[in-house]
Amino acid sequence: MRRSQVTTVSLLAALALGACTNAKDVLEPSAITPPAGSAQSSAASQGTSTTATTPTTTAPAPSPAPSTTASPATSRTPAQTAAVAKTRLQVAPIVGASVEAAAPLTAELQARARQRGLTLVGSTDQTATHVLKGYFSTMSEGKDTTVIYVWDIYDPSGNRLHRINGQQKAPAAGSGEGWPTVAPATMQAIADQTIDQFAAWLGSGGAG
Fold first, then answer.
1. Strands laid side by side in the 119-121 sheet
2. 23 backbone φψ class: left, alpha, beta (φ>0; ψ -120 to 50)
3. H/E element holding 147?
């Protein structure tokens, strides 16, 4: 009788202990979250890859190389700009050209000088840094007239520093020969070329 009771008590205790163990397994996170090894085994058995995907990092594009394009030939250095800015040019009376031909030449010299940043001063101005003296002549060939010109550049003391010369050929604008046939546009073109060459000479150092 006593042995049967002991056996019964032991059996009940074993059942109670088993019930507590099952409840504990359900409440613990490990009971619902398979261990890492179990997850990998399960994934492998189902043919699913568990390899971690490494984020792809795109390398930054290389910075563009500095431009090596040369500056335009017409650009000026600070020294050249300063040389032009401090120049005060005096234009002496034109020698050899008629008054009618010299008028558009003189007007265009003034306009072109302003475009180039040059300052023109009058014949009585004592602050001139350069004096420009022009000598002109014409040569007629059939219906064409060629204007030949020479410009001498002097310092205020009368020393010649540089010479600009050339010729401009254009169809006659009137009847006859010589200056009456020279169109204003021809003299204006000479004025533009003269100021451009003078400014270029200044930019190169102003030494003839």
1. 119-121, 88-91, 130-141, 144-154, 160-171
2. alpha
3. strand 144-154
* Nearby residues of 8 by Cβ (< 8 Å), 6 or more positions away: none
Q: CATH assignment of 78-203?
A: 3.40.50.10610
Measured CA to CA, the distance from residue 190 to residue 206 in angstroms comes to 21
Tens digit of pLDDT per residue, the chain (208 long)?
445 454 444 555 544 444 444 434 444 333 444 444 444 444 444 444 444 444 444 444 444 443 333 333 356 677 678 888 899 999 999 999 999 999 999 999 999 999 999 999 999 999 999 999 999 999 988 888 999 999 999 999 999 999 999 999 977 676 778 899 999 999 999 999 999 999 999 988 865 4
3-state class (DSSP) for residue 198: helix
Domain ranges of the chain: 2-46, 78-203
